[in-house]
Every structure is written in structure tokens, then in C-alpha cells.
From TrEMBL:
Gene3D superfamilies: Aspartate Aminotransferase, domain 1 (3.90.1150.10), Type I PLP-dependent aspartate aminotransferase-like (Major domain) (3.40.640.10). It comes from the Bacteria. Its EC number is 4.4.1.13. This is cysteine-S-conjugate beta-lyase. Its cofactor is pyridoxal 5'-phosphate. One of its GO terms (molecular function) is cysteine-S-conjugate beta-lyase activity.
Length: 406
């Protein structure tokens, strides 16, 4: 299927469908007719097999309490084995309504009020929220920005663990918003440090399936096995991969029996353990039959990323883009434009709703994050508007400078 055929078949007008991204955008951002490139879901219909499976389940008509389908784990394991050569044991798997919900759960379950939790900003802002809301302490080991690529400062990471007595590390892999797909050796060095200081690791691998050509995702589970590291929990979900976020289904993998027992004991006291049959029905079908669909989505994402890079390079050379290795979220550095308040250009002038860098770290004020999982037409419109707004801003600046000089 070409990109055009995929877009013709799968692109969806999501307005007036109770979509958070489209129907809440003006209210959330305090604007009017904003073009939404913010929250991370897709403007595409899910794999046809998932829709058909949902249809069949709806036709059946009774929606009483449900159990996990007997062949769900096999479908999920099949996907993991086909894509990442990761072995997941069925006994490790627990379900939740979302990865963010799981972050809160796991912090409650495995840490205490006041414990030090390490994160690597700039990072997905609910990482900050989950730590603050559960009254733990945020400890930051920022990523290093070298040229436009993000790297881990391992010495600083280890120092923070030592000096702050870190209990738990929240690892974002692949990384939102930096777009990095961490390599085996990078993950191994992180886990080895955590092993040395007995730090529990929660690896958020929700973007694991969204890997662009030339990059290779490696799960922390695989790396942990190679060094005999036990203190690891993985959270992930079919929701980013197949655009199923509204069906509220996510996974918690607990490879360690000891951690599993602690989690189960905690969950039986505090957590809803029933499952959502629609989430499981759609995810199972997508894991079984969604390979080609995902390949096509990744092509669209790559083309959208290339289009933006080419236009910005020509038309706004001040903009810098972090190379997109994974995720569908493009991290753009507009700081050298020195706009005092980026919202005046991006939102008020261009009419775009984006994620702002400051949400991910106080040090990234001049950055924006664009969601590429949409049509080339929307991306083109967004770029037209953004470039025009930037040009208008630059012209005003020159005018003011000239007036000032005269
Ligand atoms: C790193 C990361 N974790 C979690 C989520 C959200 O997951 P959920 O909707 O399952 O809570 C996102 C969404 O963008 C994300 O980027």
C-alpha cells in the first residue's frame, strides 16, 4: 500500500467524536479553531482486524464481567517475538487501564512518601506529576544535548543515585520527547548502575513499537537478563502502537517473582483487577494481524518527519530538530529565535496546539513537540502556518531593531 492509499483508507476526521485531541483542544489551550498536534494519539483508523473483532464482540450483545481471553497472551507473545525477539512469560503479565495509572500504582506499591525517584528530563511530564502527586521526591539526571541528539551522562546519573539515595528510576524507553531509541549498551550501563545501588527500575516502553528505519528497539527485559538484573518492571500498552488509547488497556510485566508477589498483594488491596473486554478484544486482533498496518503508519510518520525537516531547514534555518529514531513525536528546538513567549507565535499567530518544551523540563522553554501521526495534509497546513508566524515574528523583530537603531 502506498502512503496515499493508506491515508485514503485510514485517515479519520475525529472532530465531534468526543476526541480529547480534537474536541477539547480549544478549551484546554484557551484558543479558537486550533489545529491539534499535541496529545499522542493518531488520526488514523485502527487495524481493520481490530475493528472487525470489536464488531463481532458488539454483535454478541452481552457485556457482563469478563476475563482475559485464553489466547491473549499468545497473541501478545507472538507480536513480541516477531518484532523484538523479546520473550515474555505469561505469568509475568498484569493488566491496567493505562501506563500513567500504572506509574502511580507502582510508586505507591514499591516506594514510600519522601523516597527519591530519578528521571531524565526533558521527559514525558506525567513522570513529574506521578512523583509529585504521590509525595515522593523528584531527582533529575538530565539528558545531555549534544548537537541535536540526546545522550545519557552516566557519571551524573550514578552520582545522583549515590548522593540522593535514589530508590527508583523511571526510565522512558524509547524516549519521549527526545525521540531516542536507546541502544543495548546504553540500557546495559544504566541497569548496571541501578544493580550496583539496588535501585528498582520501571521502564516505560509504551513507544517500543514505534521505531523508525535504521533503529533497533531493545527491551530492558532483554538487557536485564544479560546481566542478571532482577529489580525491573516494564510498563507498556497496545494503545500507542495501534491507536487504542480510548480503550484503556495497558500491561505491567513483572519478571521477578518477588516483585510480582508484592504487586499482587498490593493490587488485591487497592486496585480494580477486572479487565475491559473491548480493550483486550481489539488489542488481541491487532497483535495478531496489525503488522502491515503498523508498517504503513511508520512510513507516514517518517515521511511527515522528513517533510518537516526539509521545510524547516530551508525556510527556518534557526530551527533544530532532534533526529527521530522512535515515537511519532518530533522535538523541535526554536530557542535560537529567542521568542520571549513561544505561545504567542505558535498558538496565537499560527493557530497550532502543540506540547511546549517547558512541560518536559524547565530548561527547554524554546522547544515544541509535534505529533506526526496525522495526515500529510494536516502537517503541511501546520507547517505553512508555523513558518508564516515565525516569519511575521522575525519581520517585526527586524522592524523594531531598525526603528530602535534609527
Ligand atoms: C512515555 C509515555 N508513557 C505513557 C503514556 C500514556 O500512556 P497511557 O495513556 O496508557 O496512560 C505516554 C503518552 O504519550 C507516553 O508518551
Amino acid at each position: 500500500m502506498t502512503t496515499d492509499t493508506f491515508i485514503a483508507a485510514c485517515a479519520k476526521d475525529r472532530t465531534q467524536t468526543d476526541s480529547l485531541k480534537w474536541d477539547l483542544v480549544d478549551q484546554r489551550f484557551g484558543g479558537k479553531d486550533l489545529l491539534p498536534l499535541w496529545v499522542a494519539d493518531m488520526d488514523f483508523a485502527v487495524p481493520e482486524a481490530a475493528t472487525e473483532a470489536l464488531h463481532r464482540r458488539v454483535e454478541q450483545g452481552a457485556f457482563g464481567y469478563s476475563i482475559v481471553p485464553a489466547d491473549y497472551a499468545a497473541a501478545y507473545q507472538g507480536w513480541q517475538a516477531r518484532h523484538w525477539q523479546t520473550q515474555v512469560d505469561e505469568t509475568w503479565l498484569r493488566f491496567s487501564t493505562g501506563v500513567v495509572q500504572s506509574l502511580y500504582d507502582l510508586l505507591h506499591c514499591f516506594t514510600k512518601v519522601g523516597d527519591a525517584i530519578l528521571i531524565q528530563p526533558p521527559v514525558y511530564y506525567p513522570f513529574f506529576d506521578s512523583i509529585k502527586d504521590t509525595k515522593r521526591r523528584i531527582i533529575e539526571a538530565p539528558l545531555q544535548k549534544i548537537d541535536d541528539t540526546y545522550r545519557i551522562d552516566f557519571a551524573a546519573f550514578e552520582r545522583k543515585i549515590q548522593t540522593e539515595a535514589v530508590k527508583l528510576f523511571l526510565f522512558c524507553s524509547p524516549h519521549n520527547p527526545a525521540g531516542r531509541v536507546w541502544r543495548f549498551d546504553e540500557v546495559q550501563r544504566l541497569l548496571a548502575i541501578c544493580q550496583k545501588y539496588h535501585v528498582l527500575v520501571i521502564a516505560d516502553e509504551i513507544h517500543a513499537d514505534l521505531i523508525l528505519p535504521g533503529n533497533q528497539f531493545v527491551s530492558a527485559v532483554t538487557v536485564a537478563e544479560s546481566i542478571g538484573f532482577q529489580d525491573l518492571i516494564i510498563v507498556n500498552s497496545p494503545s500507542k502502537t495501534f491507536n487504542l488509547a480510548g480503550l484503556l488497556l495497558s500491561h505491567v510485566w513483572l519478571p521477578s517473582e518477588e516483585l510480582r508477589d508484592r504487586y499482587d498483594a498490593w493490587a488485591s488491596q487497592y486496585k480494580q483487577t477486572e479487565v475491559n473486554i473491548f480493550g483486550l478484544t481489539a488489542a488481541k486482533a491487532a497483535y495478531q494481524h496489525g503488522d502491515q498496518w503498523l508498517a504503513e503508519v511508520l512510513t507516514v510518520i517518517q515521511e511527515n518527519a522528513d517533510y518537516i525537516a526539509q521545510r524547516l531547514q530551508l525556510e527556518v534555518p534557526e530551527a533544530r530538530i532532534a533526529p527521530l529514531e522512535g515515537t511519532y513525536l518530533l522535538w523541535i528546538d526554536l530557542s535560537s529565535l529567542e521568542v520571549p513567549n513561544l505561545k504567542t507565535v505558535v498558538q496565537d499567530s499560527a493557530g497550532l496546539a502543540v506540547d511546549y518544551g517547558a512541560w518536559f523540563s524547565q530548561d527547554y522553554d524554546g522547544f515544541i513537540r509535534l505529533n506526526l501521526a496525522t495526515t500529510p495534509t494536516i502537517i503541511e497546513t501546520a507547517l505553512d502556518r508555523l513558518i508564516e508566524a515565525i516569519n511575521t515574528y522575525k519581520a517585526q523583530q527586524h522592524f523594531e531593531e531598525d526603528t530602535h537603531d534609527n
